[in-house]
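Deliverable D4.2, example record:
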Amino acid sequence: MLRQFRGKFLLKSESLLEEFIWLNLNELLKINPLKRQYFVNNKNRTDILGITQERSLAIIELKKKGGKGSINQLITYRENVLKYSSQYSILSEVNFEQDFVLIAIAGHFSPQAQKYANSKLPEALLLTYEIQKSQNNEYSLILRNHNNKIYSRVKIDIIEDSLFDSLPSLLQGYLIDNPQHRIPIISIIKQMISFSSDIKFETSSYYDSNGDLQKNLLFAKYNQKNEILNNKICTEFHYYYSPADKITRLYLSVYLPTIDLNIRNSKRHKLIDGVTIDSDDFIHVNELRDGNTVMSRLGKIPLRYPLKTTEIDETYSSFEDYYINYRKYMKSRQSLRSINRSDFTLVEKVVKMTLEDWSVR
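Output generated by the structure prediction step:
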């Protein structure tokens, strides 16, 4: 989570820096948060938008190392916000008659970058940051101005854990922001990676047309070309952030044999697919939702899970009953232990049966 640079501790990634700045924006900079990762046009996306008590718009750019690029980005963002401001409902409280507050934060600004900022954007505030650890093992994020004097300081929660440190920043940020989920989620990840050395994880991300962010953390078996082997996806975390609705959610899906419903012709077929675990605390299961569940609700079609083998010809009305019997009667699953309804009540139990199923695919 931390790295050393020029004799001080910094965060390993820009996204972690963004997470801490966003969570402590008012305390560090006396700015109220508006948006993160917001598209000001089709090409440019700001790190953080905020608003001061005087209703001035604040644009904050974060970098591991501050160079001329961060200054140029602030200039571009300011120009585009002014040009397209009428399109942004989120900026309705901003007083555009006042100058913008432009801030660049980085681990270090070279003398050349500072000189460039003075000539191109003299009103910009350049702040360097560092992480300090006290004798009581408490951490603080410190911002310093161009004279190296402390501008602000805030206590933060740094997690000293080797597994946490190996996780991608998207999940680290979520666990920092949601400490109540930290222990169960880390426990789930430990459960997966300790089950088999073949289980590795990869991340992917994209923004939709509304600026909503979707990031995925996929646990699977990969070949030497880093391609996922057929039917060897195990689990997947889905991170969803909507700036407009101010919603951040993390979902866990497990990949199990289930039934796919084509809503156009109501035909069903078997496949290995993601089953979303609806859980408020990542401990207890509220509901399991597969593609069949979603399509059935959209089309108001009764749930049907047909299962036909040499021993059985039944149609079930829930995924749980279907999978209990699928695992019992399908020859490829006969080496697995028997399960019952209680195995679907806890996230840890669902992950356990998923790992077992993954091992025989």
